[in-house]
User: Which sequence fits this backbone?
């Protein structure tokens, strides 16, 4: 697997450090993105630059995509110069958080000889830089086993979730729960402060009490409560995808639906 040729599409804030870790692991890497500075930096580190997703796919055994949303994913896969125009055999791994249905349809459409894995990530920019992301993978287990050395270069934990789309479903349920916990913490802080209990005292209690969660303990709430970080917009996008998928599946998720309507940015 060390001789596997890897193509990486989408070398933005998350994708670039992920691609760098693939390079560090010794893989032959080709990259494609419209961000010229990012691809040139990767070129200096040893990557080759492709002029299109089609060209990248033709030179790759494993194609990894890390783009923003469904629209961009469909564009790079199905476009006139897209991945499916250039890949004859190999594996497509989508690491973006996109609709489970999109990747399920992709797996049904690809020609014989091409396999698909969905592998959304958790761990944020620090995890991407340090190669310690958690990957939630859906698809054929034997294909995951085949690609594990490449995925290991970017992660410290790989969780096999089931068939194609299962990784994305797992990621979306996690995003739903994060939003519900955030809403609960913010409402609790608002009530406590109203009667004079200091915010820092409340947060210390939430970190060590029976209501303690990873979010209460590890998030920089002082920063978050004053200004919503850009990553929260991505969380809202993920929860929107979860709500759409729940609707398609005929499942009612009223708590997450209600929390989606709340303004969780609070203070400036």
Assistant:
């Amino acid at each position: 697997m060390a001789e596997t040729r890897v193509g990486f599409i989408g070398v933005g804030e998350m994708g670039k450090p992920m691609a760098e870790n693939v390079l560090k692991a010794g893989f032959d890497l080709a990259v494609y993105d419209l961000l010229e500075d990012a691809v040139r930096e990767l070129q200096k580190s040893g990557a080759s630059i492709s002029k299109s997703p089609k060209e990248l796919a033709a030179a790759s055994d494993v194609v990894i995509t890390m783009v923003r949303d469904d629209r961009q994913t469909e564009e790079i896969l199905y476009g006139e110069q897209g991945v499916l125009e250039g890949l004859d055999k190999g594996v497509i791994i989508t690491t973006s958080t996109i609709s489970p249905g999109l990747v399920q349809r992709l797996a049904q459409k690809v020609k014989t000889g091409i396999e698909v894995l969905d592998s959304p990530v958790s761990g944020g920019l620090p995890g991407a830089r340090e190669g310690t992301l958690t990957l939630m993978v859906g698809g054929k287990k034997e294909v995951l086993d085949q690609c594990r050395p490449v995925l290991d270069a970017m992660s410290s934990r790989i969780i096999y979730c089931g068939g194609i789309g299962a990784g994305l479903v797992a990621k979306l349920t996690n995003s739903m729960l994060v939003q519900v916990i955030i809403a609960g913490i913010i409402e609790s802080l608002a009530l406590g402060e109203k009667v004079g209990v200091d915010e820092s005292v409340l947060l210390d209690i939430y970190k060590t009490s029976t209501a303690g969660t990873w979010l209460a303990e590890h998030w920089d709430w002082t920063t978050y409560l004053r200004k919503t970080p850009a990553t929260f917009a991505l969380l809202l996008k993920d929860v929107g995808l979860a709500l759409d998928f729940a609707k398609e599946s005929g499942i009612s998720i009223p708590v997450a639906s209600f929390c989606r309507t709340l303004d969780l940015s609070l203070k400036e």
The chain has a mean pLDDT of 91. The CA atoms of residues 43 and 145 lie 29 Å apart.
